[in-house]
UniProtKB/TrEMBL annotation:
It comes from Pygocentrus nattereri. This is Transferrin receptor protein 1. GO terms for molecular function: transferrin receptor activity. InterPro entries: PA_dom_sf, Peptidase_M28, Peptidase_M28B, TFR-like_dimer_dom, TFR-like_dimer_dom_sf. It is found in: Cell membrane; Melanosome. Homodimer; disulfide-linked. It comes from the Eukaryota. PANTHER family: N-ACETYLATED-ALPHA-LINKED ACIDIC DIPEPTIDASE, TRANSFERRIN RECEPTOR PROTEIN 1. Keywords: Cell membrane, Endocytosis, Glycoprotein, Lipoprotein, Membrane, Palmitate, Receptor, Transmembrane, Transmembrane helix. One of its GO terms (cellular component) is melanosome. The lineage of its organism: Eukaryota, Metazoa, Chordata, Craniata, Vertebrata. Residues 667-778 form the Transferrin receptor-like dimerisation domain. The keyword Cytoplasm does not apply. It is a single-pass type II membrane protein. Cellular uptake of iron occurs via receptor-mediated endocytosis of ligand-occupied transferrin receptor into specialized endosomes. Endosomal acidification leads to iron release. The apotransferrin-receptor complex is then recycled to the cell surface with a return to neutral pH and the concomitant loss of affinity of apotransferrin for its receptor. Transferrin receptor is necessary for development of erythrocytes and the nervous system. Acts as a lipid sensor that regulates mitochondrial fusion by regulating activation of the JNK pathway.
Amino acid sequence: MSWEGFVAWALLALWGFSFALEADQKNRHNCFSFNGEPRSYTRFNLTQNMEGDNSQVEMKLSSDMEEEAEGNGVGEHMNHHPRPSYVSKSSQRSPRNICFMGIAILLLFIIGYLVGYLAHRKADKTYPSCAEDLAPDDGEDMAPIETVPSLDWSDITAMFKSKLTTDSIEKSLSDFSSDSHQAGSPGDEALANKLMGRFKSYGMNPWTDEHFVRVQDRPTSGTNKVTFQNKTYAESGFLSYSATGSAQGAALYAYYGQVEDLRRLQDLRINMSGRVLLVRAGKITPAEKVANAASVNAGAVLIYPDPADYSFERDTDLFGHVHLGCGDPYTPAFPSFNHTQFPPAKSSGLPAIPAQTIRASTAAAIMKGLGGDSPRGWGDGGLRDVVYKLGSESDLIAVEVNNVLTEKKIHNVFGVIKGFIDADRYVVIGAQRDAWGPGYARSTVGTSLLVELARTFSEMVNNGFKPKRSVVFASWSAGEYGAVGATEWLEGYLSSLNMKAFSYISLDGVVTGSSFKASASPLLYDLIQNTLKEVSSPTDANKSLYSEAGSNWEVMEPMKMSDPAYPFQAFSGIPSVSFRFTSDKEYPFFGTVLDTKRNLDSKVFNLRVLTKTAGEIAGQMALQLVHDHLLRLNVEKYTNTIRSKVAQINKEIISLQSSGRVPKTLRMQWLMSALGSYSRASRNLNTNIQNSDLDDYEQCRIINNRIMGVERDLLSPYVSPRENPFRHILLGSGSHTLEALREHLVAIKENSASGNIDLLRNQFALATWTIQSCANALAGSVWEMDNEI
């Protein structure tokens, strides 16, 4: 009998018994009641314990009550009324009544059993087991209902690889290629609408995120200008967010404009104040070049593509931005929603000096007229008929920048496949949609892969795959201006995103060569490695990507501010990864209108296969993150990262204390202790995982919450997101980071004016406690910690 049947039987039996008992009682004498109340009962009497303040409950049965009635008011009241005479129970229960009660109980037992049996049969028909196929009754013209058994990991990966095909990728590459789709343009909006249509066709309920952002575009009429030796060069390229106006100074060739390049010029006793720096594109971003130039008080910066690095025509224009940051720089740390009125503000990463790109032909004309010395090692450029010289004080050059600040409406487009257990936890897969020109490698490949992954995951769900967590597919706009669309979304939902989004996977620029490289949070290193072991090499299907290059293959690179995943990692504290197939030399067509399919094909052999491989990498990382009970994020990986930073700091402190430049009272003990706390907490968590029942989903959820908090807890709580948006103390930027602490020690060693012992102490204390707080949170609940943590 089923549980429902048993309950039905029990209720009917009890009802029958009460019915029979009532019939029996009707034959008894009415003296069983006193003033309409039952004579025999149980009563709870609350009496106060006068010797203490506690109350106690006394249970008085009928016999006690009768004795009590003899000596209280109730007894006195009863003395005014004659007591009724009690008739014995045995005299009232005749054999006839007993027989009647037995028959009634037996009859109701039989009825209850039948009701339970029928209920059980009905439940069997209504709720079949997942393993059964329901066949229609004979004579009924119905299609059989098929149920899909749960899928294991090998089934899931096999299904994924079979549905992600090169033919479907090729079609999407064709559908989403566009010659013009600059952020906020009609071409950009057309692609957004097409994405919405695709997501809807996959059974999703897509939505858009609208922002009104301010960006800097080229002059509405005319061009920016560079004047040298009475000749003016009109430049069609531009750098968004440059300071506008005019600047004039002596030209100075500064190689790539890196910190070490400027330091070399300082070693040569060259005063760079007010100079117009001529630098080559590449190595670092334009924003970093301009920031470095501003740090030595240069007057302006000109950036050109040297033919040694860029294999295109000498008259090709370059485009980019010089905001040393991400997002709309005029709404720092808060979102540009619905024309929201904020007080005037701007990012500290905006440059104060003009910056402009110039063509290689313009650079050659300027370089030919420069005087000065020839720098050792810096003359390896490809400008024809040019001797590379540093320039002299008399080589005056004027720069005029007339960029226009405009407001644009942009749309981010989203689709989601909801999880079947933890729908409120999600991995985000994103790709930039806009570009300066065709942007085939920059945005078309990534957008097409985003669409194909959304289609593939949707079809997998329709065929029985049930992800435990959700997958969000995001198409960003205004990526060329510094991840504006993505950053504005993060700023708008920061309070919830770093609690719910446990990973971000970027698809921007995923194919520009054949060598695999990745930048990621250390938490994701193991996931990347395991994924590469499961994905076949695009050149040899019998080898995995992991084994193709042997054990010495180093694929991980530091995550830079220009990385599309950087704001997710350093601003929001979401473990993130961006990866790409690349080559030893940078892809030369980024930031130009020459980023076309033809040019990408000329640099990449078998583009379709490489794109499919990139899709498999992103897809299988996402699948594992949403399929497993336990998030595959290894918290112990951060131990080595912290240890490396602490070792560098310790080395500098020992050196400075031995020379007396730093007091002995500044001790490394507390920073070392924080490192030890994190190491123990991460190690203990992994031990708990090994000893846990990973089939217990609630236990896994508790562990996952601790894992998800690590990246968020490494964001310094002691600095303002508005002033220092990239608050991550290990991967971010600003005075709160461990790298800034090391650099401050170096500045003190070099007797720099920026060295300050009191500021150093403050940096030291806050960085230490940030790590300690992260360790405390990782260790679990406060009652589970020991003194060592």
